[in-house]
Amino acid sequence: MNKKLTWMSVLIVVLLITVVGCGNSNKAGNKGDKIVIGIDDKFAPMGFRDDNNEIVGFDIDYAKAAAKEMGVEATFQPIDWKTKESELLSGRIDLIWNGYTITDERKQKVLFTKPYLKNSQVIVTLTDSSINSIHDLAGKKVGLQSLSSASDALDANAIKSQVANVSEFPDNVLALSDLKTKRIDAVVIDEVVARYYLSKDTASFKILDEALAPEEYGIGVKKGNEQLLNNLQAALDKINADGTAAEISKKWFGEDKILK
User: Fold this and answer.
1) Do you know which Gene3D superfamilies this protein is assigned to (predicted)?
2) Buried (b) or exposed (e) across 160-189, using 16+ Cβ within 10 A?
């Protein structure tokens, strides 16, 4: 009798531990008490490495604030931006969060939060360049980040058929480097990124007044993980409403650019 009670007690304890453990691992819709966020660590000012090789940026601070609200820890995983959706679908990361433009094509692959920031694709050239409008790209060599929304914006514009060639780069830093050395004539790039680099080097670059395409940033979540999506959106709504997001925006952009 006592032996049977002992085994029954052990079984009950094991079941309780299993239930509690499962409850903790799913409290945010991710594994455990961490959210792994996939980023391009050369995408200033959204997410990049500073002089001390620390990952910093607007999206980094925004993600940390949202994670704190959710009661989890945000960890950042630099990835090859060309494979971002594959990284998400494989489960190696929980979120794509680094200036990730919402597009109809991407909506077929991932779930998106509500947009949180407006952006556009702009054209950057050298300050002494004769390129002053989109039409001036005819016959010119254009660079952009591979598999980015910059490529989509250029493809959607009639000028694409008139440019001499398009070079794709792993990141915007390399594209701007080739522009500076005149291996290419212009770069199609996110406006928020372009303005950051212009603030660092006003002598070298200029942004054309015409933009290729307006767009909005969102956070990508694996399809089927509605729990994480809903919990994340609730946290974003909270920090957007209480002024936390506005302060982060002012820190990086000098103004409140958060979409409410």
Assistant:
1) Periplasmic binding protein-like II (3.40.190.10)
2) eeebeebeebebbbebbebbeeeebbbbbb
